[in-house]
Amino acid sequence: MEYTIQKLGQxxxxxxxxxxxxDEIDLLKPARVNSSGYRIYGQAxxxxxxxxxxxxxxxxxxxxxxxxxxxxxxxxxxxxxxHREKLIEKRVQLDQLIANVDKTIALTEGxxxxxxxxxxxxxxxxxxxDNERKYGQEIxxxxxxxxxxxxxxxxxxxxxxxxxxxxxxxxxxxxxLHAAMKTNDPAGELAQKAAYxxxxxxxxxxxxxxxEAHAGVAxxxxxxPRFTAYYDKQQPDTAVFLRDAVLIYTGAKA
Length: 254
Description:
This protein is mainly alpha-helical. Helices cover 72% and strands 3% of the residues. The chain folds into 3 domains: 3-59, Multidrug-efflux Transporter Regulator, Chain: A, Domain 2, CATH 1.10.1660; 75-157, no CATH class; 159-254, Antibiotic binding domain of TipA-like multidrug resistance regulators (Globin-like, Orthogonal Bundle), CATH 1.10.490. The longest helix is centred in the middle third of the chain and has 33 residues, at 76-108.
């Protein structure tokens, strides 16, 4: 079946302006343009648009999506399986938060009791699940299951104050990193502050810190396109800048 740009936009729930932009950046080209000048999309384009929207839902930027979809190693079936797995993870996280809210309502109404640690259990589990989804496979391959499992246990045992601090640290780290990028100097004061904040943030997840591990993780952000997509989603080359700043901070790069 074929669709005009208007029909495809209605089908997918996106604007024709978005589809025109995807065409302009060579992310999603129409199958053909008819004699009246209308863009016409076929089944292959419908399937590609579905993949684009899946990746957008997961927070991947358009440039990275284009790289993924045009890669010779791209496997559509495997991508669908990966999308399904990530969506199930999101559903589990939402179910945990809903359960937490329900119990808090019951607590407020005097129908149950709830310890302070329990109040934050859902949020901490979401933090663990997010980190496993973003970093788990690579970190486990690099450092082993035991290290990662200890890290997850450390997060689960966080106090309320520690949980609030790690959340604050992450926001400060990203704000400092993006400000540092404007200086274009990974050795500068702001960039080195960002590297220090990154170390502080990591320390809440790692049983112990080493400069070698810190440098290794920063390099992995550049080597693995999924990490790069996560860090570059707001500003291109963020992963590279962070890597360079961390390598300087740890002494791995003069």
